[in-house]
């Protein structure tokens, strides 16, 4: 059974870069044909897909965040990382890593397409 565990800074100052990582166990991020994704849930708002990385290392990003987002992976640690640059208080929320078998770009509702998800890590952007 796959398990995903996020880790993040908790608090980030405005204009800085947010970095959250996802440690995966029970599956390989390189061997399986899944999309390994990041999503977030701002307070009081619906979940939002941020971006994904495939088992081959191809990346996909939300059109609204692509210019601030980088997803990378460490195959030796079986984990992947989200960098979100130039953050503002509007980037505050719970950040989740997830696994899904459908392309988040074309599926319609990426959040509902995930078959496994971490518990989430709270990130607050504030000075």
Q: Short description, anyone?
A:
The chain has 127 residues and is mainly beta. The protein has one helix at 110-113, and strands spanning 3-7, 11-12, 18-25, 35-41, 48-54, 59-61, 69-74, 79-84, 93-100, 114-117, 121-125.
Which descriptors apply to this entry?
3% helix; 1 helix; globular; mainly beta
Topology:
Blueprint: E1 3-7, E2 11-12, E3 18-25, E4 35-41, E5 48-54, E6 59-61, E7 69-74, E8 79-84, E9 93-100, H1 110-113, E10 114-117, E11 121-125
Parallel strand pairs: 2-11
Antiparallel strand pairs: 1-3, 3-8, 4-5, 4-9, 5-6, 7-8, 9-10, 9-11
Shape annotation: globular
The number of strands is 11
**What Rg is obtained from the alpha carbons, in whole angstroms?**
13 Å
Q: What's the pLDDT, averaged over the residues? A: 95
Largest sheet: 7 strands, mixed
- How big a fraction of the residues is strand? over 45%
Describe this structure in words.
- The strands form 2 sheets. Strands 2, 4, 5, 6, 9, 10 and 11 form a 7-stranded mixed β-sheet that branches. Strands 1-3-8-7 form a 4-stranded antiparallel β-sheet, with no helix packed on it.
- It is mainly β.
- The N and C termini lie far apart (39 Å).
- The protein contains 1 helix and 11 strands; from the N terminus they run βββββββββαββ.
- The longest helix has 4 residues, at 110-113.
């Amino acid at each position: 059974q796959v398990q995903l565990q996020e880790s993040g800074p908790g608090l980030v100052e405005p204009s800085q870069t947010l970095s959250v990582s996802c440690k995966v166990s029970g599956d390989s991020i390189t061997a399986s044909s899944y999309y390994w994704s990041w999503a977030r849930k701002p307070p009081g708002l619906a979940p939002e897909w941020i971006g994904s990385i495939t088992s081959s290392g191809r990346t996909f990003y939300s059109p609204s965040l692509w210019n601030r987002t980088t997803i990378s992976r460490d195959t030796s640690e079986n984990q992947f990382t989200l960098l979100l640059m130039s953050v503002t208080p509007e980037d505050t929320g719970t950040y989740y890593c997830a696994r899904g078998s459908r392309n988040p770009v074309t599926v319609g509702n990426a959040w509902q397409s995930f078959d496994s998800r971490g518990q989430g890590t709270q990130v607050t952007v504030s000075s």
